[in-house]
Protein 1
Amino acid sequence: MRSAALERLARQVRRRAEGQPCDVCGAPVPDEHRHVLDLGRRELMCACRACAVLFDRDAAGGDHLRLVPQRRQRLEPVPTADLGVPVGLAFFTIQSDGAVVAHYPSPAGAAEWEVDPHIWQEVVDRHAQLGTMAREVEALLVNTARGQREHWIVPVEDCFRLIAVVRREWSGLSGGSTVWPAIEQFFAALAEDGRSCDG
């Protein structure tokens, strides 16, 4: 998923107008609703309950639409140094063709690079949960910045929210005084959501 597509998705996640219709069928959607990813346009689409149920079946959307899962699973620390991560805040997605792309949020959006497939497989061999990630719509989210040890499997929309947080809060060369507290708040909320998913 390329940077321009990530930017479009981040903008869509930020846009929460009341009474927004389902992007699939036009029916009203509640404030709390699911999303599907249009793989062709690389866009998140709001889905009403009926459409979410429809696309919950693996083959329902074919190669075009894919339901974004709701799983938020905290992992034991995953060694990411070998994956070429130059910063402590990054996420990894598996593309439809099996390629793994790493992204890291920045004040200009998301930078990205392709991960060596052999090194990724070595990491998966040591952390079997990564082998269960849904292609395109789930991500390995890592935060090892400033002494943190956060490793999660999350819906890809959470990563786009994080991109939006970084862009909104970043100032100056080092990020300023608000970006890191905002990132910490993001991960605290993620932990809450993860507990409710587990419960």
Protein 2
Amino acid sequence: MSEKYKFFEGGLFFVTLTVVGWIDVFTRKDYAETIIKNLNYCIDNKGLIVHEFCIMPSHLHLICEAKKGNLGSILRDFKSFTAKRIIEQIQENPQESRKEWLQYMFTFFAKRNSHNAQNQFWQQHNHPISLESSKWIQEKTEYIWNNPVKAGMVDEPQHYIYSSAYPFTELKIPK
């Protein structure tokens, strides 16, 4: 793997976590709120620091770092837990009209990856990009904030509730 896409201790990174097949899962409020809840858990208990974020229908963008240790380990644990929890939520949700199809897709992608026994929710790679200048940080922040605007989901970045641009976000972001 290229050095360009590796975590290292003490770094600030732009990371994208993507659902397998770019499946739109986070269109349901319950699933997006599971992401917020578990990011907050990692902030409180694992040393994750999230500076910027945006939950799109099929992926999640973060500008983040670890207080200490390896950010990759924190994100691995986050992805493992949220994958299990969201798949459970899908199975338990009586309003989930795509339940069978989603389960089929998660099983399909698991068969293509020897690391997964039954289901694969997240794509395996995060492609972390080290942010080593204020110019890069600003560029990625603007990208994150404008992602839902470019997707036609809102007219202004601050109107998208699953973003750090939203002034009332429930995610614990340092001010």
Protein 3
Amino acid sequence: MNLATLFVKEKKEFDELRRMANDVFYLERRLPEQVFREQFHHYLFEQFDWAMCDEFWNVIQQLAEETKDDFVLTAVLDPDPVGYYYKTFHYYNWIKIPVALSSDEYFAVLESGPEESPADAVLYNSYTVIWLSPSMKWAIWGERNDGICVLGLQDTSVGNDLLPFLKTWRPIDETVLSWIALHYVDQKLPQEIADTLVLNYSNG
């Protein structure tokens, strides 16, 4: 498969996918704000760097198969997909990845950057990233600067069915907060940020 064909190139398709993403996320927000819209009620966390490796794709495939989705959108919000990426490279840093893709191919497409600027591959130049399926029953928000990804689920039964595949994902707890703290001065997470995260992402 020519992995370059998976990147979104046409404005019409980009606009449609952005509308879908906007139905799930508050795209203008950033953590520790609540970035998921109201239909999501259950949250689990993982480390951002893990989302950029091939093992992560196995979890994505299981989620997509459970919700009967045939592709997953991997979309970069920072750097800006229009003002920076499309303007510079004439395509978007948004990728429609078929669920049937292998984990090696997933990693390869993340590593696939513009010929004139390999460092702009999603693997290297991505600070806010979302993973979203057409069913919109689950979604993932990731921020490199905080070192975490948040999986949001509409239906907790889907999460229960997938617990064997989500064994490394955690609810918001001291471990998750310690991951985030690594990205702050003196590895100390400000209490206000910790409290906001717990308020927004506790499963109650």
Protein 4
Amino acid sequence: MQAAERVFAEKGFAATSMGDIAEQAQLPRSNLHYYFKTKDDLFRAVLQDLLEVWKQDALSFEHFDDPRVVLTSYIRAKMAHSRSRPLGSKIWAEEMLHGAPVLRANLDESLVPWARLKEAKIRRWVEQGRILPVQPSALLYMIWASTQHYADFGYQVALLNDGEPLSDRDFESAVQTVTSVILRGIGLEP
């Protein structure tokens, strides 16, 4: 799966072959085909894995009710995955940019209900006066865009950082900044 994620991100879906992935994974192609009959099946599995990881990042929505705790935890988890799995974010972006040709049906069944639950919690916070009025989906989109930027535009981030990837300290500062800006935007102190 990691080899597939790497090759799909580097070459794109259309230019990737099962042979490329088998070579990257240092496996015979037949072994790869034993688990994944087609390139579409493997690509779908990579995308589904990413979606499940990102859903796990949002478990704070289920475990806590304090908007500061929930959003701080969620942003930190999303930023951590942008750093540890930047290629996955690029694959996801490519799939979305093309209208989700591989995952379209799955998204209606998995992503949409999942997002609606998060939006409902944000809406409750607004109704309870715990955060400033905000469109729940817009808040989620802002979090996704801000956190995934560090993966999708990693080259640009490094370029603007004197050609170097962010150090641990710089990355932690970025996490703190993103968190602070989002929390202050909804009327919370970080």
